[in-house]
Amino acid sequence: MRLTLGKFVVHPQHGPAEVVERKTRKVKGEDVEYVVLEVEDQRLQIAVPEDSLSEIGVRDLASHTRLRKLMSLLAKTGDKLEKQWSRRLKALREKLATGDLDNVAEVARDLYRRQQEKDLSMAERNLYQEAKDMLVAEVALVLDVDHEEAERTIDGAIDGVPLTRLGLDRGKDKK
């Protein structure tokens, strides 16, 4: 993946980030090319070795087509969550740590629905918020909307609102 200044990508642990700088550093006597990413809304900068981007899990921002598929995934019935709290939390953390858009969405969806049934533990609430924040940031960037609108779109998708009502039917052929 070749990154240019101003391009947005997604870091698996921090979410959407903008490429703000390229630099070379000496590491063990060798020049290593780094890409500096500034994480959306966090004023956090991360220097990532360019050769390690895919290994770390840095990926391109989702496309509109990818978002439509994501919203369909959010509307689906989720997997049954582990009953034992510690195992459930571990499985959800592992999913979230991948940074994979589908995994992040599944964590947000499953905890959103669990929250509708019963109270979440503090750890589950924190995990839910982390997953939701990552989704909201990416959806807001892709759709060019504010975070509140992105959050309403995600919640609507989880609640089963049709894509046409969410404004995500663009790009489909209308016959």
TrEMBL record:
Pfam families: CarD_C, CarD_TRCF_RID
Annotated InterPro entries: CarD-like/TRCF_RID, CarD-like/TRCF_RID_sf, CarD-like_C, CarD-like_regulator, CarD_C
GO biological process, one term: rRNA transcription
Domain of life of the source: Bacteria
Sequence ranges assigned to domain CarD-like/TRCF RNAP-interacting in this UniProt record: 2-112
PANTHER family, per the entry: RNA POLYMERASE-BINDING TRANSCRIPTION FACTOR CARD (PTHR38447:SF1), TRANSCRIPTION FACTOR YDEB-RELATED (PTHR38447)
Name assigned to this protein: CarD-like/TRCF RNAP-interacting domain-containing protein
Protein species of origin: Enteractinococcus helveticum
